[in-house]
Design brief:
Structural class: alpha/beta
CATH architecture: 3-Layer(aba) Sandwich
Number of domains: 1
Protein name: Two-component system, regulatory protein
Order of helices and strands: HEHEHEHEHEH
Strand order of the largest sheet: 2-1-3-4-5
Distance between the termini: 10 Å
Strand content: 15-25%
Radius of gyration: 14 Å
Pfam families: Response_reg
Largest sheet: 5 strands, parallel
CATH class: Alpha Beta
CATH superfamily: Response regulator
Keywords: Phosphoprotein
């Protein structure tokens, strides 16, 4: 990995259908010390089209981190996670499930599918900001991410 790669903007791919959560997550990342770009899609079909660079996403660049909600329209997050982690070209992209589900089956199933981290969203605004800040600090500042 070159030094140039270290300085590039990090791309966060947010897969979330709830408009309010999208706004809150974007707001929480606003004061980030890490240069980044947030790309958002609102359903599982669109997420996979983006990641596979299909259709309108033919020129999409690979994200450095995926924040994935489980409860999505068209194709749910569990299916998206399974497809990402079974695809040789996508499986190394870190995936953080960020969801309201506290269901143990969802937690176990996500880890069985090799999710990198499972985080339950808080409905408390300051706690949600803390969670997103923690994700940013660990995944974008501390962790070494694969370049491809």
């Amino acid at each position: 990995m070159s030094v140039e790669t270290e300085d590039k903007h990090k791309k966060i791919f947010l897969v979330e259908d709830n408009k309010a959560d999208i706004r809150l997550i974007q707001e929480a990342l606003k004061n980030s010390t890490v240069p980044h770009e947030v790309v958002t899609v609102r359903d599982g079909m669109e997420a996979m089209a983006y990641l596979r660079q299909e259709g309108e996403y033919a020129n999409a660049s690979r994200p450095d981190l995926i924040l994935l909600d489980l409860n999505l329209p068209k194709k749910d997050g569990r299916e998206v996670l399974a497809e990402i982690k079974s695809d040789p070209t996508l499986k190394r992209i870190p995936v953080v499930v960020l969801t309201t589900s506290r269901n143990e089956d969802d937690i176990f199933h996500s880890y069985d599918l090799h999710v990198n981290c499972y985080i339950t969203k808080s409905r408390n605004l300051s706690q949600l900001f803390q969670i997103v800040k923690g994700i940013e600090e660990f995944w974008l500042s501390t962790a070494t991410l694969p370049s491809e």
